[in-house]
Amino acid sequence: MSPILQATGLVKHFDELKAVDGVSFEIGQGETYGLLGPNGAGKTTSISMIAGLLEGDAGDVTVNGEQITTSSTKGKGSIGLVPQELAIYPDLTGEENLLFFGRLYGMSGSDLDSRTDEVLDVVGLADRRDDLTKEYSGGMKRRLNIGIGLLHKPKLLILDEPTVGVDPQSRNAILESVESLSGEGMAVLYTTHYMEEAERLCDRVAIIDEGKIKAEGTRRELVSMVGQKDRVKLTGGGALGSAADSVLQLEGVTEASSSDHGLDILAVDASSILPQILSRVSEAGANITGVEVIEPNLEAVFLHLTGRALRD
Questions:
Q1: Where are the domains of the chain?
Q2: pLDDT of residue 74
Q3: What is the distance between the alpha carbons of residues 106 and 249, in angstroms, rounded to a whole number?
Q4: Sign of CA dihedral 62, 65, 67, 70
Q5: 3-class DSSP state for residue 298?
Q6: Measured between alpha carbons, how far is 39 from 132 in angstroms, rounded to an integer?
Q7: DSSP codes, 46-76
Q8: Pick from 163, 182, 127, 123: which is nearest to 147 by CA?
Q9: What is the pLDDT of residue 249?
Q10: Among the CATH numbers 3.40.640.10, 2.40.50.140, 3.40.1190.20, 3.40.50.300, which is that of 5-224?
């Protein structure tokens, strides 16, 4: 199956600054792809070129098989863009905003009405549909912004840092909405500088810094680049020393040590061998009362690739 989005060799200069430097990636149907990087890394410039809002100095973009440029029209109908800046009318209700933008998309009649109902449900605003949006909280406005991008059922939804400046409850509601989209077959391009959002939402992640993609892959693939392993902490008692010796014989376990209160284990892909670990511990005569698996995160990968923390 052909990718929904193909971006190849994107380059953009602003005077002497090379804001985007050879960015290339693709996104398949039903895939959520994250661009993870600090402010100023080139995320927004890249997606502006992908959406056909900004003319690049080099590179090509196709969406659903159609080439995208600033002057093209056909392919842009397959894109839903949710910008950082809110694009809603404060003196219209939530429902009126959706109906207005739906007509701009060429929708009308019962199709627009039913789709408006669906979108209000997806973004959790059905009970506030008749309220003026100037009365909405910041998080509600963000969710309506996403709803506008969803109205015409785009093949590609582009979300540019949609949770910036919102409260934790609204942030979680936004993330839950995004999680449901890939299940509907939509390709999602998600930019963020929050590592935990990329880990939660994205099937694949590209780490971008200074306009370049430093690495891309699944979270597991990226973490493997820095050679970090999962840590398993088992609390309990009994024959913990014997249990540590037994666990250390398992393939994938590189370290296992005991203390007065449990076991500390380092392993590759610990979740997949956790049943074997627990079986060995039980057979050795130890009693386990608690299990915690700590996986390395993308923050460590970013630091390894760039020499600085994600939010520096």
A1: 5-224, 229-295
A2: 87
A3: 64
A4: negative
A5: helix
A6: 32
A7: HHHHHTTSS--SEEEEEETTEE--SS--TGG
A8: 123
A9: 94
A10: 3.40.50.300
Give the whole-angstrom CA distance, residue 217 versus residue 33.
9
Q: What's the CA gap between 8 and 142, in Å, rounded?
A: 30
Six-digit token string for 168: 């934790």
Q: Are 5-224 and 229-295 in the same CATH fold?
A: no
- Whether the CB-CB separation of 234 and 291 falls below 8 Å is answered with yes
Report which secondary-structure segment, H or E, holds 244: helix 240-247
H helix or E strand, kind and range, residue 131? none
pLDDT of res. 312: 54
Q: What values do phi and psi take at 176, rounded to 5?
A: -65, -40
Span 229-295 CATH architecture: 2-Layer Sandwich (3.30)
Handedness of CA 80, 84, 89, 94 (dihedral sign): positive
pTM: 0.81
Task: Identify the burial level of 175 via C-beta atoms within 10 angstroms of its C-beta, where 0-12 means exposed, 13-18 middle and 19 or more buried.
Answer: middle
Helix spans in 153-226 (H): 168-181, 195-201, 219-225
| AA identity, residue 169 | Q
Digitized pLDDT (tens) for each residue of the chain, 312 residues in all:
789 999 999 999 999 999 999 999 999 999 999 999 988 899 999 999 999 999 999 999 999 999 999 999 888 999 999 998 899 999 999 999 999 999 999 999 999 999 999 999 988 899 999 999 999 998 899 999 999 999 999 999 999 999 888 888 888 888 888 888 767 789 999 999 888 899 999 999 999 999 999 999 998 888 887 777 888 999 999 999 999 999 999 999 999 999 989 999 989 888 899 999 999 999 999 999 999 988 878 888 888 788 777 765
**Residue among 131, 128, 163 at smallest CA distance from 145:** 163
Kindly state the DSSP code that residue 84 receives in the 8-state scheme.
S
